[in-house]
Amino acid sequence: MTKSALQIARAAYKPKLPKALNGAVKAVEGAATQSVADQEEIKKLFPNTYGMPLIKFEAGDAVQLPAMNVGVILSGGQAPGGHNVISGLFDGIKSLNADSKLYGFILGPGGLVDHNYMELTGEIIDEYRNTGGFDIIGSGRTKLESAEQFEKGYEILKELGIKALVIIGGDDSNTNACVLAEYYAAKQYGVQVIGCPKTIDGDLKNEMIETSFGFDTACKVYSEVIGNIQRDCNSARKYWHFIKLMGRSASHIALECALQVQPNVCIISEEVEEKDMSLDDVVTYIAHIVANRAAEGNNFGTVLIPEGLVEFIPAMKRLISELNDFLAENAEEFSHIKKSHQREYIISKLSPINSSVYASLPESVARQLTLDRDPHGNVQVSLIETEKLLSEMVATKLATWKTEGKFVGKFAAQHHFFGYEGRCAAPSNYDADYCYSLGFTASMLIADGKTGYMSSVRNTTAPAEKWIAGGVPITMMMNMERRHGEMKPVIQKALVKLDGAPFKTFASKRDQWALITDYVYPGPIQYFGPTEVCDQPTKTLKLEQGK
Ligand code: FBP
């Protein structure tokens, strides 16, 4: 395999660990926990894994442990640092007993069900330390939910003598991890299940999980490129760049990038919903900023758009919710409708209010809303071209304003969608350290016999030696939500809090950034050099922690 100079140098990087994990540890139990909502229902559904205490690791006495076999799965979208979670897990189980073995299931949860696996040896692990991507074993979006799948999984776990399974995934995959942990505990199969918080989206976080891994690196990559675009548009002064950013429902990525680059416009979906804004309100807001800048002779700018925006416009949200239920119930019938008749078919089936919203949408957007859901029942928001929808609608509005003398400039747009570009970047030092620590912590939770826990590493805006490693019962993060037309226990998604410091900071600056060209150009991620350049956490995390 040919390697780049950076890859070779980066392989030698030694990720930092929380101080307690540098030697033998003991697990200190905290108070019993409760789910964030719907306590009675969740308790009933998880009788064996509900209410367990929080765990914190502290320095302890060395103990001799037998060798253990552990399995690992990468689930869902790629996020920078996944390979370091696996190398931390590998080093952790080896530190407990050199004969311990790690097995990787290939291409996500499907690998467990189909018995597709490989042993991850020291040589293989060394090839992937500090690299981006999930290619060591691949990832997939198979949803682990049926008893039949759990049983198939158990067959191979038993055959390989696997004591514990680590599922590295987002909120949906960790929900599945929790359901699996409960199932194996109820059956007394003796297989533990531990989750690790992954997703560039940044929406798997709470009091005990400060951030999901990959968010830091992905935002830094997008901010670099947006910064480059801002320099380009400030040089040519002739384009408005409409930039859609991944993140599924939550706007954390758009908000973090806005804090890093100071764009002219950044839409935050959660605010749009809170203010009950219509699509036209969003378009009018952007058009005003374009017109105000044009009045000063500035016919250029940047607009950041979170990919989940349409789901947060209340009228669209109602429409999508009815569409989700309708398509879940009538998938078979819908699959037989000719493409050219699908639009009319949907219009004829929806309630009058949603039908008229659907009918008012441009053809391409209407079609995108009826495309296949992902296995978790989510609309595939990354397929909706919101950046084009908004810029076309802004152009139409400005053309009207021109005839009324309210717009005096020129408007030409360029479109971008940044998502996949950042998901497999080489992890920043933050993600390299955080991920390695999460994996190492998972090995300690396994050694301590825990199941249904998520690996947790906190206090990460402080130097790594002050980080706190432990575990959080996954049931603690759960509530009941409607999925595929049914109420299900799921981990509560963390959306942008409008009363939180990151949003408030942005809101206090955005009018100034709209009019004055005050762009910041963060430049590429630095892996070597002064700590203030290389080891910065995200602005979101620092603001959330009052730093
Ligand atoms: P996860 O939630 O699985 O981490 O995925 C994140 C994400 O990158 C979203 O931001 C995006 O909407 C989605 O995956 C795209 O999915 P796919 O990789 O299947 O195209």
Distance between the termini: 42 Å
CATH topology of the largest domain: Rossmann fold
Strand content: 15-25%
The radius of gyration computed from the alpha-carbon positions, rounded to a whole number of angstroms, is: 24 Å
Identify low-pLDDT runs: none
Largest sheet, order of strands side by side?
1-2-13-12-7-6-3-4-5
The rough form would be described as globular
> Hetero groups bound?
1,6-di-O-phosphono-beta-D-fructofuranose
Helix content: 40-55%
Largest sheet, in brief, is: 9 strands, mixed
How many domain modules? 2
Number of strands: 15
- What is the CATH class designation of the largest domain? Alpha Beta
Mean pLDDT: 94
CATH architecture of the largest domain: 3-Layer(aba) Sandwich
> What is the helix tally?
23
